[in-house]
Amino acid sequence: MRTILTIGFGSFIGGMIRYMLSLFIQSKTVSEFPVGTLLVNIIGCFLIGVVYSFAEQGKMAVEWRLFIATGILGGFTTFSAFSMESFMMLRNGYYGMMTVYVFLSLAIGISATIGGFLLVRTLN
After folding, report:
1. Which helix (H) or strand (E) holds 32?
2. Which of 10, 20, 21, 27 has the most crowded Cβ, counting Cβ within 10 A?
3. How far apart are CA 108 and CA 115, in angstroms?
4. Number of other residues whose CB lies within 10 A of the CB of residue 122
5. Closest among 7, 114, 11, 113 to 64, alpha carbons compared
6. Taking the domains of the chain in order of start, what are their residue ranges?
7. Which of 16, 18, 28, 8 is nearest to 82 (CA)?
8. Which of 49, 38, 120, 53 minimizes the C-alpha distance to 86?
9. Crossing angle for the helix pair 79-91 and 35-56, nearest 10 degrees?
């Protein structure tokens, strides 16, 4: 039960941070392109790479990995928002914008995860 509450509390924190940061980023753009969600997800991808690199090296307890990666970063990043925004662009005929969004989300997201993981490895 303690693990579930730990993950839930982390998710609560991550969800609030995601909402505030995404709104802030989106408010600074004039485009319909979902920059806020894209940047939040890329930041989350980078940070999960960092967390798992520390965890894999035995420098992070399992409880902390669950709290940060599953809880905070799970609440912070949002595949459902990415999916809905992609669907709305498709439905509204923004095929090119949707293609760019999906490509950037996947390519930069995976690259950011690798970058975060390797950064910790390099610094150690």
Report:
1. none
2. 10
3. 10
4. 8
5. 7
6. 2-123
7. 18
8. 38
9. 150
